[in-house]
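Record type: monomer structure entry
Structure origin: computed from sequence
Chain ID: A
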Amino acid sequence: MSAGPTIADEPGAARGPRAMLWRWVGRPLFRCSPRTAYKFRRRLLNRFGAELAPTVKFRNTCRIDRPWNLAAEALAIFGDETIVRAASPIRVGKRCVISQYTALMTTMVQRDERGAFRMITGPIEINDDCWVATDCTVLPGVVIPEGVVVGARSLVGGGDIEPWTIASGTPAKSLRQREPWSSPPA
């Protein structure tokens, strides 16, 4: 009797020379880099196909499985122990914070009414000026609108989240408005 699908059974799983090179060389270099070596980690991810702005920061404890499906704009920050499972594209906008222990999951397995497993995949888009707080999970196909703060331990699964709100819960939904941020005059 099978225990169910595994990562290796996943359609479109990372295979081939690039994936193997990332697993055996890139990921260990990323994890073993000094804590403040943000530039090194950014360059390493860019070498493996990520599209990262020069001011993006990743902590060395982040776990990224497919950097070639990751794009992040200026001043995006990924906290400690963040999981980035990028079987589909993930785009993170400007001035976003993905806090520690957060999981960005572009694939998940769901059991249907007959008991069979089915794979659900979809891209994730986090727009400008968002903060995904500690220990959140963002599911496949989610678009987080501009200026949203997602409360700690929330499950973001495509619910009704409006721009410039504070969202929380399982599933996350907008609870109240927040003031739009505007940059100071130059």
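Annotation 1: DSSP finds two helices and 19 strands in the chain.
Annotation 2: Residues 1-12 have pLDDT under 50 and may be disordered.
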